[in-house]
Every structure is written in C-alpha cells, then in structure tokens.
Amino acid sequence: MGVRLVKQRTFQEVINLIPSEKEECSAANLVQVPEIDLLAEISQSPRNLSEVDAALKAKQMKTGVDEYLKTRPQGTSFLTDLKQKLLLSPSEAARAGT
Questions:
Q1: Per-residue pLDDT tens digits for 48-90
Q2: 98: helix, coil or strand?
Q3: Of 7, 11, 19, 52, whose Cβ has the fewest other Cβ atoms within 10 Å?
Q4: What single string gives the DSSP state of each residue in 16-77?
Q5: 98/95 Cα distance (integer angstroms)
Q6: Domain total for the chain?
Q7: Are residue 60 and residue 91 in the same domain, yes or no?
Q8: Please, which domain of life does this record's source organism belong to (predicted)?
C-alpha cells in the first residue's frame, strides 16, 4: 500500500471545489472535496473581531457566561435572566440612539 500525497488546500480552494447551486450536486462532484481536517485553517481558533469580552465585562456577565459554557448546569436561571441582562436601560438606549 503506497503513501498517498494530498495537496494542502486553502479554505477558499475547498469552497471553490463545492458545486454551486447551478451545478448538479452529484456524488461525482463531491468526491473532489478534500477532508476538512486536512485544511491548515482547521488548527486555528476562529478570530473574533467583536468586543464581546468587553461588553460582557461591562454588564458584569463574563464570569456567568464562562461558567455556564463550561458546565451547562440544569435547573439554573442563567438563561432566563440573560435576556433581561442584555437589554439596554432606557438611558443607555437613548444614548446609543436606539
């Protein structure tokens, strides 16, 4: 059994291999798509360009969110209270122009 060399592809190259809506999506077309775990990008954490941490810290919610994501405890009111915590107060909404 010989070694099969696989060309390392970029994410965009993989996307370009996937048939478009206009093309027939047959098994023959999909055979060309390499395994996703062979992509170099798969080992990189996604980049988060928003200020989520700062927003959560400002609302004093970061610890609660982190703890919930780590444990997902049953019977907690965290998710119930989350919507209310995320809403802006009337004065904050006025300042933000919303």
A1: 667 888 888 887 888 888 888 888 777 778 777 777 777 888 8
A2: coil
A3: 7
A4: HHSPPTTS---HHHHTTSPPGGGSGGGGSPPP--S-HHHHHHHTT-HHHHHHHHHH--TT-S
A5: 8
A6: 2
A7: yes
A8: Eukaryota
pTM of the model: 0.35
Would 1 be classed as within a structural domain?
A: no
Asked whether residue 71 is assigned to any structural domain, the reply reads: yes
Q: Can you give the residue range of the structural domain that contains 34?
A: 11-43
Tell me if 34 sits within 8 A of 14, measured CB to CB: yes
Do 57 and 87 fall within a single domain? yes
CB 88 within 8 A of CB 96: yes
